[in-house]
Amino acid sequence: MEHAELEAQIDRWRGYVQRRQAISPADVDELEDHLREQVADRQATGLDDEEAFLVAIKRLGNLDAVSREFAREHSDRLWKQLVLMPEDPADAGATPWRELAIVLALAVGAGLAVKAGLTWIEGGGVLARNLGLLVLPFLTGYFAWKRRLSARVVLGILVPFAVLAVALNAYPFTSGGSTELLAVLHAPVVLWLLAGIAYVGGRWRSDGRRMDFARFTGELVIYFTLLALGGAVLTGLTFAVLQLVGADLEPVLENWILPFAVPGALVVAAWLVEAKQNVVENIAPVLTRVFTPLTIAMLVAVLAVLAAVGGLAEVDRGLLILMDAILVLVLCLLLYAISARNSLAHPGVFDVLQLVLVAAALAVDAVMLTAMLTRIAEFGFSPNKIAALGLNLLLLIHLARTGWLTVGFLRGRRPFTALERWQTRYLPVYALWAAVVVLAFPPLFGFI
Question: Which residues constitute the signal peptide according to the record (predicted)?
Fold first, then answer.
């Protein structure tokens, strides 16, 4: 077994350990260090990678037994971790309070940056292009502080960030033009990849770390949505009460509350995901099992609608854009489901449903590609059409390979880890395509 396969084995082991609720992320890191030490000791005696890994795993003991032992020794840990701050700072150190202070400072900083952008940046298009540049550096900064990134990794993040910032502001975009809109839509994808590099501590080549980031992204969306809904309810009730006494707070909402609350909530949600991961039962399996069959029904309905439209050249452009959004949503759901699954479990009914979801998405994508090629043949090229065509080709490759690997897994010919590796190794392709759209499309199409 090559060293790459050894790393894959350790990543699978780490993912399995992380699903044990009694074991915190810090404990997982410690166990992984012990595992690597055991592997190195066995390799020093002449064992190959596979033999060294198996012996090391046996020396660590059964993982279920390890989890139960942690639960017995720290029976109150799970309840204590449900509280955001420790009752006695002397016992846990001042680190949680220090982290909270840093998170709040970064949240306020993101709000101030957005407020400054609203105040000083003229033109809606310019502000839209820079919105990600105003917010995501603070989230990336939190990851950099949390992971204690080396100067080399920080520099590797700052350079592409600076290149993107210069391009977005130096390019002579036509106001309201196609290339400007494409830059607004694709720049956050590139910025999110840079944030992901910080999240994984610079270990972007690790399949397990990339899957951790995919899992984090899904959890972040859930936490952010909950915070947004809760904040909207509280704000609405407050405004309703104040309106009864004749107070008009709409300018305050537009000029202060929203500019600070939305970017600040993103940073706070990231902190909550970091603080509470592996403490309570992961909600990802529940969500994916609920929404997968619903999404399949939606895709079947979409196929029926597209079939009823008739000539593909007559399909409305807005409908094609909406279909692209649906396919991206399906891909996110698929990735979230894969990240939440126990890679050691045997194939089941839900895996069959996942295959049906992929097949339905492939059918929709094929119809979309046909419609796009028909429109290009009928009306010619444009930046929007080429960008959409490229995205759909990427989705086609991603979904087709996913379906193939899923069939192999269901037939017992491939391990589930092969399906996991394909997802994490293909994801950077989307970010690269987004970078091409942002940096190359404007000059290629004359900044129209």
Answer: none
